[in-house]
User: Fold this.
Amino acid sequence: MWDYEKRLQYPVNIKTPNARLAQYIISQYGGPDGELGASMRYLSQRYASPYREVSALLTDIGTEELSHFEMVGTIVHQLTRNLSMEEIERSGFGPYYIDHTIGIWPQAAGGVPFNACEFQSKGDIITDLHENLAAEQKARTTYDNILRVIDDPDVADPIRFLREREIVHFQRFGEGLRRVQEDLDPKNFYMYNPGFDRCPK
Amino acid sequence: MNCESQKLLKEISILDFAVTEITLFLDTHPCNQEAMRYFTYYNRLKKDKMKEYADMYGPLTLAFAQQTGNDFLWTTQPWPWEGGME
Assistant:
């Protein structure tokens, strides 16, 4: 179970609305490399991990991703506060506005809805950890892309924090993978599922 | 939200960040004694500050919610996404 702390992991205080940026940044809420997919990926993968250390990592990073999900939701919310109809239409935010007004809904920048097919839980800890390493890099690339189009320091500051967390998670997942590999049967050269295929036939 | 409560909230965020970081490190280094001492130290500091914040301004988690005056402060105080308003 989880406890909620009534604060953001890192502060978000955006004074100037900007619907164009909101339309881009919503991708990290519910897009293919977004925080919702990240959290659901790790929290779903935990059960099939045969290593307590890796289950701990998946639990703690999956939990941190939920706080990033809240930060991205806050960024989009603050970027879409007090907009005029003219700003909404001019910025390209119109199609989102028609479906959601300025409510927060998980979708990619291009409007594709969040979908569980954006992540895997394969029941093979080596497969899953490789996916997670790639996922952290993809999210980092997305934050780099977002940073190139931001001109407001109030928005760039929390986005930089989120980008740095992708890097730390990539490092920790790398250590988790090393932990699993060190424990492998030396005959399992191609790293087949160490949790499911315990007894070689 | 006054200046003093913001300052205390920032201290909590800093302490929590230290706890979050060392927790991920301990996940992959569960026998590291130095990391465990670091965790214990900062986790206690964070808990003390959370208690201090709850006593002065209202609870950040339900564990610190208590009866004060007529309002249930968890419900009536601002939510974290309300920042940035001039």
About this structure: The mean pLDDT of chain B is 93. Chain B touches chain A at residues 9-10, 12-13, 16-17, 20-21, 23-25, 27-30, 59-63, 74, 77, 79-81, 83-86 (CB under 8 Å). The helical segments of chain B are 3-28, 33-57, 73-76. DSSP finds three helices and no strands in chain B.
